[in-house]
Structures are given as C-alpha cells and as structure tokens.
Task: inverse folding
C-alpha cells in the first residue's frame, strides 16, 4: 500500500503540498544524489554503504501526520543522516510549537567498531565519517531538536521518564523484533491519549502487527512499510 496526498485521509491530505516541505525534500534528494556519487564502501557486516533516507511520499505522509497531531513532545529513534529528523522538524516549525527528541547509534563510514556494536541484521545505512548524525537538519530547525547518542534500549527509558509524556513517537532504529517490540511497548506507556505511534519498516517482522493487536488498534498506512497507531 502506498499513500499519496490524494489517498491520505482528508485530515492529513489538507496539509499537502507544502512549499517549505517541498524545498526541504528537494535539498534532501540532492544530498542523497551526492552521497551516492561520492560515498562507496562496505560495512564490517559486508553491506554496501547506503544513504538511509525515506521515499518522498513517505516524507510527505510523515510531515502531514506531525502537522495534524501537533505534538508538543515527539521522540524518534534512528537518525542517520537526518531525513526522518528534518521532516518532522519542518512540520513542528510550521505548527509553531513542539520539540523533537532523537536517539541514534550512528555507524560512520570507514570506521572500525567493537564486535556487537550493531545488530547483525542491520543493512548499510551510514553517516559519512566527517559528518555528525543528523547533519542534514537545517540550522534554522535545530532549536527544536535534542539528540542523544546510544542504543535505544539504554537511552530511551531514561529519556521518556524525564519527559513524562509524549504526543508522538517514531521508530526507525534497529529493526529486530525484540527492539521494535521494546520501543513500541515503552513508548506507548508514555504516549498521551490521542497521540500517535509511527513505525518505519514494519514488514521486516511481525512486531508492529503483533503490537497493534495487543493494544487493540488498527494500523493506518502511509506506505506498505510505514504505518501508525493512534492511542
């Protein structure tokens, strides 16, 4: 299933197109082309280096979700080069309120890591060695952004406890069943009624489907691989 502005629910579609978002997406697409032209190599697991971005229509759907739900506090796991970070930050800026807290365990190009640093199922999404995670986030959006580095299993519990409550959560980190189920379950505890839980790459395993059934919610789709639940 692929959602576009014409197939999104009316309450989401009304936020599209958005000039600020389209300018951002053009810049992100140019950065991805430059990455593909200049960054080459393999991770220590043997996977080709990859940019790790979201497709344009998924970015549009994510933007529309954040515009519609107007979160005051949003948490994201998985940053990499910053596509999934810059898009909700643009929506928060257009909303005129809200802050994004991100958790990331970045893998840089041409860097040696201790065994077990990354999940063995991780593919090739990497950050150029000379760049910080989230380097694509425009400067004017960074006042609404806080980044914490580390495994989500270690960083997320104290972060959520310190925030107390969140209005939106986005999973885009380790796509193992165990990590996805852990993040969903923990984030749901802190999610306010009417808040939204969003997940990328739900087709990697049954974690999202199982969690939706466990909490009695029907998944709503941006794309066949990206869906959300409303609490």
Result:
């Amino acid at each position: 299933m692929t959602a576009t502005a014409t197939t999104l629910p009316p309450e989401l579609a009304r936020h599209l197109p958005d000039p600020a978002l389209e300018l951002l997406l053009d810049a992100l697409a140019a950065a991805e082309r430059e990455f593909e032209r200049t960054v080459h190599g393999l991770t220590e697991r043997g996977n080709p280096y990859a940019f790790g971005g979201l497709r344009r229509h998924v970015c549009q759907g994510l933007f529309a979700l954040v515009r519609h739900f107007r979160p005051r506090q949003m948490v994201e796991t998985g940053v990499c080069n910053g596509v999934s970070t810059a898009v909700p930050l643009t929506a928060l800026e257009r909303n005129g309120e809200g802050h994004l807290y991100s958790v990331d365990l970045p893998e840089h190009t041409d860097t040696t890591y201790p065994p077990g640093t990354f999940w063995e199922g991780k593919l090739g999404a990497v950050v150029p060695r000379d760049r910080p995670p989230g380097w694509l986030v425009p400067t004017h959006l960074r006042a609404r952004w806080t980044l914490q580095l580390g495994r989500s299993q270690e960083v997320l519990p104290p972060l959520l406890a310190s925030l107390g409550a969140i209005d939106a959560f986005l999973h885009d980190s380790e796509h193992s069943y165990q990590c996805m189920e852990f993040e969903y379950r923990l984030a749901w505890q802190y999610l306010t009624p009417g808040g939204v839980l969003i997940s990328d790459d739900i087709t990697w395993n049954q974690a999202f489907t199982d969690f939706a059934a466990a909490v009695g919610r029907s998944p709503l789709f941006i794309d066949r691989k990206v869906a959300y639940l409303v609490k």
Remarks:
- The two ends are 22 Å apart (CA to CA).
- Strands lie at 73-77, 99-104, 145-149, 166-171, 191-199, 220-223, 226-230.
- The mean pLDDT is 96.
- The chain has one domain: 10-230.
